[in-house]
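Practice problem: predict the structure.
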Amino acid sequence: MRLSSVAIRFGAFGIAAGVAVLAGKAAVKTLEYKSQMAVQEALIDADMSWSRVIADGLQIVLEGEAPNEVVRLRSVTVAGQAVDPSRVINNISVADQVGIDTPDFALEILRNDSGVFLIGLVPAETDRENFTKRMTDLADGVPVSDLMEFADYPMPDNWRPAINFGLRALEMLPRSKISVAAGEVTVIASTDSADEKRRVEQRLTTIAPDNVDVTMEIAAPRPVVSPYITRFTIDENGPAFEACTADTEEAREKILAAARTAGVTDDVTCALALGVPSRTWGDAVALSIDAIAELGGGTITVSDADISLVGRIGTTQARFDQVVGELDNALPELFALDATLPEAPTETEEGPPQFSATLSPEGLVQLRGRIPNDLTNTVVENYASARFPGTDIAMGTRVGDGLPADWQVRALAAVEALSRLSNGSVIVEPSNLIISGITNDEEAQAEISSLLVEKLGADAEFSVDVEFVALPDPISNEPTPQECLDQITLVTGDRKITFDPGKSTLSSDSIPVIDDIAEVMRECVDIELEIAGYTDSQGREEMNQNLSQQRAEAVLSALRNRRIPTSSFVAVGYGEENPIADNSTEEGREANRRIEFNLVANEIADDTETTDEANAESDDAAPAE
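Answer:
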């Protein structure tokens, strides 16, 4: 039977279709195999032999267990380099992370006039919102850039106290970098003056937690000194500086090395200051100290470019001339030497004339001794009244003849020198001026020496024996947090912090209350305080909570506007929670509308929680719906 042409055609098409299907499957298998092998080889070359590659058509499925997340992501990248990345399906799991150490948490806080910057890795349990709010309050209007990253690992020991201390340091230092790690804080900052530097260092040392290692690098601008002075003496009490100034660390070391060679054993230093007359200052001072040591005693005063050398009484003229000549030839250019070898004083029956000024520990000022005339007597008394305002000056002076021409200048200089002391005395003689006493200023001795050189000249004979006694640490006398709360309760009494009805605006009657609370807070350092707002039960619960929050924040803002540091304060609105009276009566609702001040443990920066509370007063306006 002959096949029809139609059947032949259908048969041919069928055979062709079958061949095409088989060829397509073969092509797919070939493509899958090549893709699979290309990816597998790439992964093996990348030391990822743990992976399995499955080809499913054009898709490449990656399976297996990567040792960590980084390797898992890396495997996808490697596969995407062997084939089109859009074809890669990532089904790789990550092995359980057992026994992995906690990362090194660290935070750097940069603060300057342009803003506050937070950079670092911190524990995930840190309350980011509250932390950022504290930083915003501290920034006082400048932007806060939060670049912190969080890791969900246990918070290390001593992390919280370190953060707490770092924030306190940041509050004191507007130009600073605070680096915080667990149990470690590094403070790098600059201050406006040496006095501020000492004050900040003292305060930070006082409030530093025992379980936090603190490193401080606080700089202060160098003062400008005029006259630029160093004064060194060797007498029966041994060698000592009465004033010491240097322009560089190198010059200071030269001067101190010469002093140690001369016999100084105490821990002394030289103030670094601006205003040096020559870059060879250190050489000139060191050579001058060497000369005094070679003479065996005397005084050397270097004031700007003038050097005054006063030898020791009893030194032979030949020895004196030799040492002075060697010094004069060795001094750098610009410096001029004036050397004097004093003669032994002539003994008289009455002794040399004297003028004395004394300041008692109780503040009594007494002036006694010889004065050349009535006009000088009046000038000295008026000058003493100006230097010691509010103090009665006890005058015991006597007008007499035969005094040196510069006696008035010496008497006035004595009064001014005395004003630099807490208590002490100054004795003026024709050839000498003796200052002794106690001061609370660490730089007083150098300042007095500089003053006398300026007033009397570089060749003037004087001695300054001043003892530095630090003032009691003001931090140690500050009230405790509980005492602060007790004081708030005491000053507010029965008065209340009130608001406009249904609003968070402080009423005019509340201003004196806020002022009194602010005065209390000025004496309290680093107290961590919760300002809690409460309402009565009238109105919707959510609206009551929002209103109480706004009112608590209004009190916080009012304290901040009065220059009270509030970085450790937190405002919380509790709405109608914790009523202290019956809300069914007007009197009860009035009592429940209140502001409370409570000691708290900040979630970010404190380890322990205090539950002491002191109720300060609240508003008299019911919340409105």
